[in-house]
Write a structure and sequence with these properties.
alpha+beta, 251 residues, 6-stranded antiparallel β-sheet
């Protein structure tokens, strides 16, 4: 899941405009608009940037991205065979930089549309959860710690930008960020289901994992929409503070 790789690959110069230079800035690969191999450059720069920034960079005011912290995510009940109202808090995403591969970059600079594929061997979504609803015909409710593991995760990333003027400079903001998740396997663990009844909790976790593919497919659109909003907000924290010609120089 390369949730931040696209824009982190461009943030190597953040702070350069006000005289603050990152201690790692010289390590970042720079891609220029007139590069004949621009798409290959973006793919390499994105992967490199995630690995460099995984522990965070204080001088850039960037928090760690592995694990990546997210305050909260709410997912509506949905419909069909799976109807679950879900609340997740104190979220940590592990594995975003480990074994990351980036490929198939497509760049449409005139329209500011950027696409890529990424691969992660394992991503763990660990959080405090609250769920209430049903899976197939079985009711499910509980609150506690949860771990959703996605193995051999392929992610299609597409984001759309627009330029705007601020203080005499041109900037870019992300207007839409689409992700499509395609894990080979999903593992689920929800502690303290049914008020802590260990027998029912264990039985439900077994049932959830036996039907993990169905569960994920039923809720996939909600997960993708929610995380698309999260990723867009994260990207804009950099893009709206760094002039476009510093993010992507013409030459």
């Amino acid at each position: 899941m390369k949730i931040v790789g696209i824009f982190l690959g461009w943030s190597r110069g953040f702070g350069a405009g006000d005289g603050k230079v990152s201690e790692r800035a010289s390590n970042f690969k720079i891609c220029k608009q007139n590069d004949p191999n621009l798409e290959e450059c973006f793919a390499e720069a994105s992967k490199q940037a995630i690995n460099l920034m995984a522990p965070g960079l204080k001088s850039l005011r960037l928090l760690p991205i592995d694990p990546l912290s997210v305050d909260s995510v709410s997912i509506g009940e949905g419909g069909g065979a799976v109807s679950l109202k879900q609340e997740y808090r104190n979220i940590k995403l592990y594995g975003l930089s480990k074994g990351l591969e980036v490929s198939d970059y497509k760049v449409d600079l005139p329209n500011l549309v950027f696409k890529s594929m990424s691969f992660n061997p394992q991503v763990d979504f660990v959080a405090d959860y609250t769920v209430d609803g049903k899976v197939l015909v079985l009711p499910i409710r509980g609150h506690g710690r949860s771990n959703i593991t996605m193995l051999n995760l392929k992610t299609q990333n597409t984001f759309y930008g627009e330029k705007f003027e601020k203080d005499g400079e041109t900037y870019m903001r992300i207007t839409k960020y689409n992700v499509k998740f395609n894990p080979e396997k999903v593992l689920l663990k929800f502690e303290n289901l049914f008020g802590g009844d260990k027998f029912l909790s264990n039985q439900m976790n077994t049932f959830l994992n036996e039907n993990a593919d169905l569960l994920f497919k039923e809720l996939q659109a909600s997960y993708e929409e929610t995380f698309g909003l999260v990723f867009a907000q994260m990207a804009n924290e950099i893009f709206t503070r760094v002039p476009f010609n510093k993010i992507l120089p013409e030459s």
